[in-house]
Amino acid sequence: STVLVTGGTGFIAQHVIDKLLAKKYKVVSTARSEAKYAPLLKNFQKKYPDGALTYEVVPEISVDDAFDEVFKKHPEITIVLHTASPASFGYDLPLKDAYLKPAVNGTLSILKGIKEYAPQVTNVVITSSVVAMMDLRSSGENRTNTTVTNDMWNPITWDEVENPMDAYAASKKYAEKAARKFYEDEKPSYKLATVNPPLVVGPQVFDDLVAQEMNSSNEIVSMVTKLPPSTEPQATLPSFTIDVRDIAEFHVLAFEKEKLADERIAVAASACIGQKVLNILNDNFPELNGKICKGDYASADKLEEDMCPKFDFDSIVEKAGGYDFIPLETSVIDLFKQYLAKYS
Ligand code: NDP
């Protein structure tokens, strides 16, 4: 089968494409420009010399007909993985233009493109987020007493958005809602799944493309390295995480596994708290000892228990036929090994 992967230059999308090529799928990817995709294409062609990866330029996903030409040119596409959506911070644009428009319009433009030009499509998978499900604004007991499950929706409305994080969360919720409404209204013959990742951590596919500035989710996890020296418990970053290679695998399982093909696929490996990330780094990277905060080593488990939101995605794991998640320790070690090899 031929799989379309939008946002092909993205952190997660690169791993999705890597998994697809390893499994012998043909892949059509999209990128904003030829210049942006060229280094990636070169690396993928070296790793998979059979020419199974091609790409098309889609400079802006939020225009109505963004993907029409791609579908016209590639009638062989039967599976669509839509990962493109604004996922960084620091845009020089009003929040609505930076997040909401591309997220929602991009999702609708891909679904409209399929409707008009690609009736042969059998499966669509849209990358949503756990921020479409959980209220990031809640704190204290409200946060830790809630168990996030895959039928929840973040109550945030666009009117309540106060900062880029709110805007990102709202954009993911509105985009997923828009996709589900389109699907209910149009009743297409394909199956629609969403993948709703928590914080995604791990290495890049290609060592030589590791950028000095990390992608935003790895950057969030790595912020602990900038904490000042302290022997206090470090309660930053209360969250839960998944390795990028695992979430990429779930994008593939989302269409390969019949039971997941119309699901809302939220999965996570483990809770995460700043102190735990610091412990992993201090244990495994002697070159960082003395340079990064130590905090209070022994407090990690209790902090995690007290501060992190809980999750229960067992029903999805069961539908996947079980799954062994890469532990946070491996994700953090692999991320930093790769990064420090280039920038230490
Ligand atoms: P990246 O920023 O690495 O990837 C996002 C991709 O989308 C890039 O290829 C980007 O292209 C493209 N894109 C964004 N906006 C537009 C636009 N307006 N027009 C065309 N292309 C656009 O982020 P991730 O890989 O982390 O995220 C991928 C998906 O996963 C997103 O939908 C994100 O919301 C979701 N997600 C990510 C999580 C994480 O922790 N990383 C957690 C939960 C969900 P360019 O770089 O050229 O702008």
UniProtKB/TrEMBL annotation:
Q: Where is the NAD-dependent epimerase/dehydratase domain?
A: 3-257
- Please name the Pfam families in this protein's record: Epimerase
Q: Does the keyword Oxidoreductase apply?
A: yes
Q: Which domain of life is it from?
A: Eukaryota
User: What Gene Ontology molecular function terms does this protein carry?
Assistant: oxidoreductase activity, acting on the CH-OH group of donors, NAD or NADP as acceptor
Question: What keywords sit in the KW lines?
Answer: Oxidoreductase
The record's comment on protein family reads: Belongs to the NAD(P)-dependent epimerase/dehydratase family. Dihydroflavonol-4-reductase subfamily.
Name of the protein this chain belongs to: NAD-dependent epimerase/dehydratase domain-containing protein
Its source organism is: Pichia membranifaciens
Q: What broad taxonomic lineage does this protein's source fall under?
A: Eukaryota, Fungi, Dikarya, Ascomycota, Saccharomycotina
